[in-house]
Amino acid sequence: MVPSSASILHACFLLLFWSDRLYANVNECYSSIISFGDSIADTGNLKKLDSISDVWFPCPTPYGQNFIGQTTGRCTNGRLIIDFLAESLGLPLVQPYLRAKGSGGGASLRQGVNYAVVGATALDSSFLEAKWHNYPMVNTSLEVQLSWFKQSLPSICGNTSDCRNFIGRSLILLGHIGGNDYNLPFSEGKKIDEIKPYVTLVIKVIISVLNELIAMGARSLVVPGNFPVGCFPSVLTVYESHNEEYDPITGCLTKFNEFAEYHNTMLQAKLNQIRELNPNVVIMYADYYNSLMQIYNSPHEYGFTKKGTLNACCGCGEQYNFNMTRICGGECFNICDEPDTYVSWDGMHFTEATYKSMFKSLFQGPYITPEFYSQCPTKPISQVGITLSKSI
Fold first, then answer.
1. 39 is catalytic
2. Residue 2: inside a domain, yes or no?
3. Which pLDDT value is given to residue 42?
4. Is 187 a catalytic residue?
5. Which parts of the chain span the membrane according to its record (predicted)?
6. Which helix (H) or strand (E) element contains residue 154?
7. Of the residues 32, 35, 39, 170, which is catalytic?
8. What's the pLDDT at 11?
């Protein structure tokens, strides 16, 4: 007997209904997301600072062109990892703290609050200014973000007991952070050996904030490592080198990737120590480095072209389409025809396609330790990244 069109439609309805019911229960894993970090996670904090101070917002149009067709404060053409993660957990997109604070919306942050700011560093700006004579536009260091978090808690969750419960039921993203601490001296042409001693200081701050969050009641935290920065169009352009310094397979600068691995190895060692002291706390290391290296090693397997692997999609330059003085959104820039086939959006940040691939390999794959998906199911990747929210 051939089923009628009505019965087929009914079956499809039931499938969608129970699928939504299943992944709505994902929300039972975490009641909210609390995020700290830099431009890899900022969903609008620096844009808000731009409107209330003299801070220049560095991610204007065409940033956001593939999201809702306008700038949102995200330094990419579309969405970030945090956006895919929130949707996969059945949570609204995570609101930037400074925007919500400006509208007095403490209650609206109970399902997610983001303190990350474009350009943020782990170390305080006064330290960076003294050391490198080059420092962030505004002091939004990790400890400053933590202070914002503490200040905002009474409006979000009320008394100490309720706030401890709120923090304990939240997924906390502690980074990406630390990359800008190294990018500042790199931009001045400092050598890697000059910068290596400061890795210890950067990690010390990350671990200090991690311990404070645990003391406040945190029970589930994700701490990302550093990227393979030797593959960034910005680094490849500024540090043009001899042939033997490039990886023969990826074309990345080996010494910069080795520096990132040095940071990551030290960070993981410290995280292991914290795990031993806090056996009831789940501390997940997010391997951003290898999540990206799988793309650089086999770009076609992930939908990226050879040209799109090391060249910026949006920029104004020659070999890598990047120029430090004429960046994406400035007076001179061109945009690639197919951003989804490019790894880098502007030479310093990634495309939405890259963030989506990273989300999948991290939160639905093997690049978070301990594995995230074995502890908390998330929506299939085919159901993530298709819904718009008013909370952007």
1. yes
2. no
3. 97
4. no
5. none
6. helix 142-157
7. 39
8. 39
CB atoms within 10 A of CB 277: 9
- Domain presence at residue 12: no
Domain that holds residue 119: 29-383
**Can you give the pLDDT at residue 101?**
83
Query: What is the pLDDT of the chain when averaged over all its residues?
Result: 89
Domain of 61, CATH number, reads 3.40.50.1110
165: which residues sit within 8 A by CB, 6+ positions away?
157, 217
Does residue 3 lie in a domain region?
no
**Does some domain include residue 199?**
yes
> For residue 41, how far is the Cα from the chain centroid?
4
Q: How far is CA 257 from the centre of its chain?
A: 19
Please state at what angle helix 352-363 crosses helix 288-297, rounded to 10 degrees. 120
Greater model confidence, 54 or 118: 118
Judge whether residue 135 has pLDDT over 60. yes
Active-site position among 42, 50, 287, 346: 346
- Please pick, among 38, 291, 349, 361, the residue that the annotation labels catalytic: 349
Closest alpha carbon to 36 in 150, 140, 122, 142: 142
Decide if pLDDT at 386 tops 90: no
Query: What's the number of domains the chain is made of?
Result: 1
> Rounded CA gap, 213 and 215, in Å?
5
Q: Between the CA atoms of 145, 344, 370 and 225, what dihedral angle is there, to the nearest 10 degrees?
A: -50
